[in-house]
Amino acid sequence: MKVLSRDGFRCVFCGCTGEKTSLHVDHIKPVAKGGSSKLDFLATLCEECNLGKGTQDIENILGGK
């Protein structure tokens, strides 16, 4: 809940709110690749963005913006 609140209950990619879709909390860098489950290493994504990113790290996608 802290991640959702911090991110304003909006997807960090597209800005979509939980009113229109399900929101997911995802690891910015997958645990399998050395990521952490600490608050600073998690982000809010809508279902479409989370499923659409595939196996890409969020940090790589956000870094490109």
Automatic annotation (TrEMBL):
Keywords: Endonuclease, Hydrolase, Nuclease. One of its GO terms (molecular function) is zinc ion binding. The keyword Transcription regulation does not apply. It comes from the Bacteria. Residues 2-51 form the HNH nuclease domain. SMART domains: HNHc. This is HNH endonuclease. It comes from Denitromonas halophila.
